[in-house]
C-alpha cells in the first residue's frame, strides 16, 4: 500500500513556508479550533442592513438604477477620463519591449471623447459570460517592467454572467463599451454585453427562486445545441434565477433536466439585444438554493475552496486577486464589499479599526491578538483574511503574488507564493526592513453593529 501524502499522515510536518505546517493547509484543522463554528455572525436581516449601509455610505458603490436618463455629456466624459488617463510611466508589452508613444496615443483616440453627444438615452445590459474590465478599449497587455507579465496595468477587474451594467459610451471602433456596474466602471468588449430593457436587466438579480454558486467556480453543462451557454464559468457568489416552471419532461438543450438545475442565462443576439435562455447546472455542482449562513465555519470552508488558485491581478487568468478573493468569499453569504483594496480598506460602511504612522508596534500587536476569523487586514496594496491564532502567531489566508520573510541566516527569503496561501502574519516582510504588522493601515470587520 503506498504511503499517505505528508499532509494526511503527518500534519505536524513543516512546509517550505515559514511557520506553516501541513495541517494548516486543511480547513478541518481550523474548523476544529472554532469554539462555536456554526453560530451565525450576521443573519439575513443584518446582512441586508449592512448592504444598505454600504450602498448609502460608500462612494465606490454605484446605484446604476439612479443614473440620469438621458445621460449628460459631462457625466459620461468625467467617468471615462477618471479611468482612462494617459499613462505617466514607462510600460512594456508581453515581449518586454516598451509600449510606444504612438500606441498610447492611439488608445487615447480610441476613447472617442469628442463623439460623446450632449445627451444620450441611458441603456442597460447584462453580461453574458465572464469578461475582463479594462482601463482602455484594448486587449493590449502592459506591464511595469520588462519580463514581469503577471500584473497587466490595463486590467481592472471582471464581470460575471448576469451582472447588470449601464452602457455609458462606445469606443471609436465600436468594439468596446464603457459600462458602469455596481462596483466598477470600465471598458468591456461589446460582444460580452447584451442590451435589454431596464426592467428585465435590473430585475434579473431579484428573481426568485434562484441558485447561488458556492464553489470557487462551477460550469454550466456542456451543450452543442446552445454554445452561448455551454460550459460557462460561474464564480463564487454568482446568483442565477431558476426556471421553476420548466416542464419536468422537456429537454434543455438536448438533455433531460431531472439531474440538473434549470437556470435562465442571458445571451447576446446577433443584433446585440438581450435574450434569456435555459441552461443546466449539474446537481453535483457546488451551488446552494440560497446564500450561505455567515458563520465562522463557512468562512473557513469558503476561503479554503480557493487554496492554491493562481493569483490573477484584476481577475485575470480566470482567477482573482487579493481583494477579489475576499469579496467573493463574502459574496457567497450575500455580503457586498467594494471591489478594490483601497476602497475596502477605507470603507465607512464597515467596522473599521484604522492605523497611521504614529501608532506603535504594541498598539498594532494588540489589534493582531484581537483578530477574529473573517476580519480583513489591510497593508498598502494588499488584503488578508484572518483564520485564527496558534503557536503565538496570527494566521491569514490571502491571495498574494509575493511573500517573503527572514531565513535562518537573517537574509530575506522571497517565496513568490503567487496564489491563495495560508501564512502567519507577523513574520511576513513588507520590503527589506518592515513587516506586514508595521504597515497595517486598517482592519475591517463585518459584524453586527452595536445599537447607540
UniProtKB/TrEMBL annotation:
<dbReference type="InterPro" id="IPR000064">
    <property type="entry name" value="NLP_P60_dom"/>
</dbReference>
<dbReference type="Pfam" id="PF12913">
    <property type="entry name" value="SH3_6"/>
</dbReference>
<keyword id="KW-0788">Thiol protease</keyword>
<dbReference type="InterPro" id="IPR027017">
    <property type="entry name" value="P60_peptidase_YkfC"/>
</dbReference>
<dbReference type="InterPro" id="IPR039439">
    <property type="entry name" value="SH3b1_dom"/>
</dbReference>
<keyword id="KW-0378">Hydrolase</keyword>
<keyword id="KW-0645">Protease</keyword>
<feature type="domain" description="NlpC/P60">
    <location>
        <begin position="293"/>
        <end position="447"/>
    </location>
</feature>
<dbReference type="Pfam" id="PF00877">
    <property type="entry name" value="NLPC_P60"/>
</dbReference>
<comment type="similarity">
    <text>Belongs to the peptidase C40 family.</text>
</comment>
<dbReference type="InterPro" id="IPR038765">
    <property type="entry name" value="Papain-like_cys_pep_sf"/>
</dbReference>
<protein>
    <submittedName>
        <fullName>NlpC-P60 family protein</fullName>
    </submittedName>
</protein>
Amino acid at each position: 500500500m503506498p504511503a499517505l501524502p505528508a499532509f494526511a499522515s503527518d500534519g505536524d510536518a513543516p512546509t517550505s513556508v515559514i511557520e506553516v505546517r501541513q495541517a494548516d493547509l486543511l480547513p478541518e484543522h481550523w474548523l476544529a479550533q472554532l469554539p462555536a463554528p456554526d453560530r451565525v455572525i450576521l443573519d439575513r436581516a443584518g446582512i441586508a442592513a449592512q448592504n444598505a449601509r454600504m450602498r448609502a455610505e460608500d462612494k465606490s458603490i454605484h446605484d446604476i438604477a439612479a443614473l440620469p436618463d438621458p445621460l449628460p455629456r459631462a457625466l459620461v466624459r468625467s467617468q471615462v477620463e477618471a479611468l482612462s488617463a494617459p499613462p505617466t510611466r514607462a510600460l512594456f508589452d508581453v515581449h518586454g519591449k516598451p509600449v510606444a508613444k504612438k500606441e498610447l496615443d492611439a488608445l487615447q483616440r480610441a476613447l472617442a471623447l469628442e463623439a460623446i453627444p450632449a445627451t444620450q438615452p441611458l441603456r442597460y445590459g447584462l453580461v453574458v459570460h465572464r469578461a475582463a474590465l479594462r482601463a482602455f478599449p484594448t486587449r493590449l497587455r502592459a506591464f511595469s517592467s520588462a519580463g514581469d507579465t503577471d500584473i497587466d496595468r490595463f486590467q481592472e477587474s471582471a464581470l460575471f454572467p448576469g451582472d447588470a451594467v449601464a452602457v455609458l459610451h462606445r469606443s471609436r471602433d465600436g468594439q468596446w463599451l464603457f459600462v458602469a456596474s455596481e462596483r466598477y466602471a470600465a471598458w468591456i468588449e461589446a460582444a460580452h454585453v447584451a442590451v435589454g430593457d431596464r426592467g428585465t436587466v435590473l430585475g434579473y438579480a431579484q428573481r426568485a427562486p434562484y441558485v447561488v454558486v458556492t464553489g470557487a467556480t462551477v460550469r454550466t453543462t456542456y451543450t452543442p445545441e446552445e454554445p452561448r451557454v455551454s460550459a460557462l464559468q460561474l464564480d463564487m457568489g454568482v446568483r442565477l434565477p431558476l426556471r421553476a416552471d420548466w416542464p419536468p419532461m422537456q429537454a434543455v438543450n438536448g438533455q433531460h433536466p431531472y439531474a440538473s438545475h434549470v437556470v435562465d442565462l442571458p445571451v447576446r443576439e446577433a443584433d446585440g439585444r438581450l435574450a434569456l435562455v435555459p441552461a443546466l447546472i449539474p446537481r453535483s455542482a457546488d451551488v446552494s438554493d440560497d446564500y450561505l449562513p455567515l458563520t465562522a465555519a463557512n468562512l473557513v470552508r469558503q476561503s479554503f475552496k480557493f487554496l492554491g488558485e493562481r493569483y490573477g491581478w484584476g481577475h485575470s487568468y480566470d482567477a482573482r486577486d487579493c481583494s477579489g478573493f475576499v469579496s467573493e468569499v463574502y459574496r457567497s453569504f450575500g455580503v457586498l464589499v467594494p471591489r478594490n483594496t483601497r476602497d475596502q480598506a477605507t470603507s465607512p460602511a464597515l467596522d473599521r479599526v484604522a492605523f497611521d504612522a504614529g501608532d506603535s508596534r504594541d498598539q498594532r500587536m494588540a489589534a493582531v491578538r484581537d483578530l477574529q476569523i473573517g476580519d480583513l487586514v489591510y497593508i498598502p496594496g494588499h488584503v488578508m483574511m484572518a483564520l485564527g491564532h496558534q503557536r503565538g502567531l496570527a494566521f491569514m489566508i490571502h491571495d498574494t503574488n509575493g511573500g517573503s520573510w527572514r531565513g535562518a541566516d537573517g537574509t530575506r527569503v522571497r517565496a513568490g507564493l503567487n496564489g491563495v496561501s495560508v501564512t502567519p502574519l507577523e513574520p511576513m516582510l513588507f520590503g527589506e526592513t518592515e513587516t506586514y504588522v508595521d504597515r497595517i493601515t486598517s482592519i475591517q470587520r463585518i459584524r453586527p453593529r452595536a445599537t447607540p
